[in-house]
Amino acid sequence: MQENSEITFLQDGEIRTIRIGKDGFSPTTTVLNYLRASAEHKGTKEGCAEGDCGACTVVIAEPHSDSRLKYTAIDSCLVFLPMLQGKQLVTVENLKKDNQYHPVQQEMIERNGSQCGYCTPGFIMSLLALYKTSNSPSKDEIQDALTGNLCRCTGYRPIVEAAAAACVHEGRDHFSEEEKNVIQKLKSISKDQNSIRLLSGNQIYVRPQQLEEALRFLSENPDALIVQGATDIALRVTKKHEVLGKILDLSALSALKEIKTADREFSFGAGMNLEDIRKYCENIFPPLYKMLSVFGSRQIRSLATFGGNIGSASPIGDTLPVLMALNARIELQSISGKREIPMTEFIIGYRKTQRQSNELISAVIIPKMNPNSIVRSYKVSKRKDLDISTLSGGFSLTFQGDFISAAVLAYGGMAERTKRAVTAENYLVGKKWTREIAEQAGEYVYSEFTPLSDTRSGAEFRRLAARNLMLKFWQDTQH
Amino acid sequence: MKNIPHDSAGKHVSGQSVYIDDILVNTQLLYGHIMYSPHAYAKIKSIDISTASSVPGVHAIVLAKDIPGENQLGPVVHDEPCLADKEVICVGQAIVLIAAENAECARAAEKLIRIEFEPLDAILDLETAIQKNTLLAPPRTMQRGDADAALKKSKHILSGEVRTGAQEHWYLETQSCLAIPGEGHEMNIYSSTQHPSETQAIVAEVLGLPKNEIVVETRRMGGAFGGKETQANHTAAWAALLAHATRRPVSIRLFRDDDQKMTGKRHPYFIHYEVGFDDAGKIDALKFEQHADGGCATDLSIAILERAMLHADNAYFIPNMTVVGKAYKTNLPSNTAFRGFGGPQGVAGMETVIDRIARFLKKDSADIRKINFYETGERAITHYGQEVELNRLPVLFEELSLSSDYYQRRKEVDAFNARNEFYKKGLAFTPVKFGISFTTTFLNQAGALVNIYKDGTILVNHGGTEMGQGLNTKIAQIAASEMGVSLDRIKVNATNTSKVPNTSATAASAGTDLNGMAVKNAIDILRARIVKLMASEFSKSYPAEASAEKDILIKDNTIFDNQYPERKISFAEAMTLANLQQVSLSATGFYATPNIGWDKQKGWGKPFNYYAFGMSVSEVLLDTLTGYVRHLRTDILHDVGDSINEGLDIGQVEGGFIQGLGWCTTEEIKWDSKGNLLNHSPDTYKIPSVQDVPEDFRVQLLQNAPNPNAIRKSKAVAEPPLMLAFSSWLAIKDAISAVGDHAYEPSFRLPATNEVILLSIEEIKKKKNQ
């Protein structure tokens, strides 16, 4: 791995090289802070520095094929500068060209899509990503693309209408005219750049291209923080103002972004982002699709990875209960080999997993859904979207004839870790799935947990809702 | 001209709008940082800054003792120190200011500052404050008739309580200020403030300087909603102190979590009511006792309490009514103005009473509302003596009940609820009547300065501030049409205290009403000068048939004689001519709202210039197992008089409604037992997202309803629509009530979070099974 102190990316049509540690930027300088440090890029705003408001949204373009770019809206407050390596950074200043507004800008102007204007650049960038990826999007698709952008003035109706009116040109605009040119420039960057290893002050930032390199670095540096999308780790920089010492960035590892299919199961690379997983799962794992559809926002899901969400082992961890219900297995890899652990056993305590410090989560293996099983996922939160669950559930019942032969009732937000309601599971095995049985199982769930009261809700609400989810599960599985 | 876009829209969408933190300043700019109290109530025993001062990159550390002027921020009552000195009275109160080269230096210095506290017993909730009677001011009373006597005679009497929660403004741009020292004592302040004149006054007082040394400029705010009416002054004063201490430019933009922890919110209320009514549901007697949590200082709490009391009737005539209002001191950040300014809390009390009566009598709540609406004559007089003139309530009710198909949908909702066990629908129809004017009468004044340049372009200065509402767009429209020129000739300047002095806050929804009139006044003066000049100029060529001033018109950038249309000149040429003829092309304008005034002590008179009205019908679908609510449909019909700009007005109606919906549903604020705010970021404080707006949202403006009392027959619009969200709030309650077949009064509060809802449903289920 070569030592270097530079990162290179495309911005404003030009190849830009940043000397980390020299131009006033560290490896953990966020893209937002990089932009706001320049006189020409004040358009991108900080609203919250935690990825909840989208005022800092920018678009990242990277080659999708030889002739096409893929445009993704992300929260620039959560992205470290080195993650731009080899990509094009598009900001709100880039849309208006030759005194002509971009269609998304024009429709926002005409439909009163802005009032105070502070959230507007972020909305424009989410609209640009939508414009480039979707033609005549449905209202649901528009709302999904805008969930990560908060506006306190308009009430959103004019923005949704502007999106519908603008996104009708099959993505054609001045960016499409430049695509081939941009791809050439991006190729010229990636030609001389392989893995990155940045040293700056007390910080080491390593972004390998090969899994082997990553595993070797990890075995030598078990104290390294592992990041991929950094949506969680970045908060330690932006909210707690910590200086992170050693960082292993896995986002360039193509080996972790593959889907492998076998007769009985799918293996998802742990580096896949949750938005790609969501789309892939719509038909094969509907409960996972449903959970991911209310997970964070489009911007967050485009950065956050499967491995990151599982590895952080949050007590709520939206994907964890549903993966437990789906009987998923976690594949861990170290320099000395691979091993698999059932999801139901992977989490062992508050933010604690069975992962050893020299191991990476390399894949998530999910068996195809058993036709004799019913699986559902539930999320209970104050606001439906872009809100961390107050509690969540992933439930699975397997039947032999009319009788339940196995049950997984996994809950998030009810204990210090995602936890199964064991007494309720035991009660259900051998029973028929009737309303009375479901309600009784709910009573067991109610007694089994002693959740906390916190800022999201009181303990009694959590217990009541956890109980009621049994009845809801029953109701949802009646035909 | 009615639908022209916001005058900054092009800049907004291309990232070219300049907010405080975007202003380009030279490399001498310093970063301003605030160290604040971790205690709700404590004595400060000592502050040690010795090691912090020597951190490289730190330029100044300022304590209370270093303040050259008065250590005071209180806008009305001087009970709010700029920096805590001997004691702290809430978590988040500023104690130390740091100016440093960058944020990292400032935070490093903060870590080295040692403050020794002696914690004291804090009051952290309204209940305790009521118990200990920590009043901020003597209680207020408004009354008409004899409520006690009337209650005794009433057929039915109900009493109960209403609780409403705090609300964080969550403007996208946090409190921000850039202070740049000039020569001598001059201080130039660029502030995200709704009230530049008061910001100027507070900075002058804190620095101990006369006001003519301080200039405050406000180009635009990234949202305000009342949160920058008084509390923008704090950040401005801190930045000014640091700039004064360092003689360098200092910028402060509060970090989101700090902004949420340090600034005040909408006042939480506890309201007790007792109501007497007949079998039809007609109210004869009503007593309200309103209790407001003012936080640690007075701020605007008393004016907010007053407006809550003035809106305790909402849209209803109540022959015998008594409202008692009390505001209390607690050890929380001082609560402040928020869109509606107490009105929403007052209306929440009244609408709860109506809802309760309807359930008690097993009648449709819309019908109870209808028979209690203000009418004409005796039944048009409010509990504070003002007549409800040009009452739009009947026409709004009639039109909206038809366009929303309310009565048919009521039947459908009942039928749905009879068929479904796990899901229940709710429907509610609520009105708002909102008084327009500052209730502190002298504040109803505005100024303007209009300059015409020799090329015929016009620069309009006025005292109002742009916070997204489109004030400057409406002002430009007013200026263009009053002058007779096209909109492209008009530029509205950044608000600046050196152009228009001694202004009132842009608040109380009155920005266009007041400043529009002041601008019109200035333009009337200029137009008269121009007309006089051109009558004389045109007459020079026609001595026999002179042009008369009354015939000189200005239209479409042309000045002409209506009798002799061939006598004409372009507006721009005329302005060059005026300059040659030594005619002044600059004028100030002024306006004070006429015919208002009232006796605050007696609580009687005419506090308002006029009323704005609106109505809303909302339908929700409730998942009774989780408490999750879907907002299926909302229909709004709102009265804005003759709209100056329908696009902007609809934006205010929709945005106000959604902001109200957030307050009513997901925006919950909690403090821990030490007075720490728990919901201090958008991670846990949930304003509505694009997914939370009604799935079917139909907003209409009432047509053919001109308002004779305001500029161009328009009406103020910013605040009233927020209260239309009570239709959604009470639709949720209606759905909960359906779980018990409307036989039980549901426990309810505001916000109605999924937790409040589910606990209420469980309670009803228990009652039902008993």
Morphology of chain A: globular
Report, as a whole number of angstroms, the end-to-end distance of chain B. 64 Å
Radius of gyration of chain A, taken over Cα atoms and rounded to an integer in Å: 23 Å
Tell me the β content of chain A.
15-25%
Most extensive chain contact? A-B, 78 and 78 residues
Question: How would you classify the quaternary structure?
Answer: heterodimer
Distance between the termini of chain A: 58 Å
Order of strands in the sheet with the most strands of chain B? 3-5-1-12-9-10-11-20
What's the β-strand tally of chain A?
Answer: 20
Rg value of chain B: 28 Å
Q: Average the pLDDT over all residues of chain B and give the rounded result.
A: 97
Q: How are the SSEs ordered, and which strands pair?
A:
The complex is a heterodimer of chains A (479) and B (770).
Chain A: E1 6-11, E2 14-19, H1 31-36, E3 57-63, E4 69-75, E5 88-90, H2 103-110, H3 120-133, H4 139-146, H5 157-166, H6 174-192, E6 196-200, E7 203-207, H7 211-220, E8 225-227, H8 234-238, E9 246-249, E10 259-261, E11 265-269, H9 274-284, H10 286-293, H11 298-303, H12 306-311, H13 319-325, E12 329-334, E13 337-342, H14 343-346, E14 347-349, E15 352-353, E16 360-367, E17 373-380, E18 391-400, E19 403-412, E20 419-420, H15 422-428, H16 435-448, H17 459-476
Parallel strand pairs in A: 1-5, 7-9, 8-9
Antiparallel strand pairs in A: 1-2, 3-4, 3-5, 6-7, 10-11, 11-16, 12-13, 12-16, 14-15, 17-18, 18-19, 19-20
Helix pairs in contact in A: 2-5, 9-10, 15-16, 16-17
Chain B: H1 9-13, E1 30-36, E2 42-48, H2 50-53, E3 58-62, E4 87-88, E5 94-100, H3 103-112, E6 114-119, H4 126-132, E7 140-144, H5 147-153, E8 156-164, E9 176-181, E10 187-191, H6 196-207, E11 214-218, H7 232-246, E12 250-253, H8 256-262, E13 269-277, E14 283-293, H9 301-310, E15 320-328, H10 343-361, H11 365-372, H12 393-403, H13 406-419, E16 423-436, E17 445-452, E18 458-462, H14 471-483, E19 490-492, E20 495-496, H15 511-541, E21 552-555, E22 558-561, E23 568-570, H16 571-580, E24 586-592, E25 597-599, E26 604-606, E27 610-623, E28 628-638, H17 646-664, E29 696-701, H18 726-739, H19 754-769
Parallel strand pairs in B: 1-12, 10-11, 14-15, 18-19, 28-29
Antiparallel strand pairs in B: 1-5, 2-4, 2-6, 3-5, 7-15, 8-13, 9-10, 9-12, 11-20, 13-14, 16-27, 17-18, 17-24, 21-22, 22-23, 25-26, 27-28
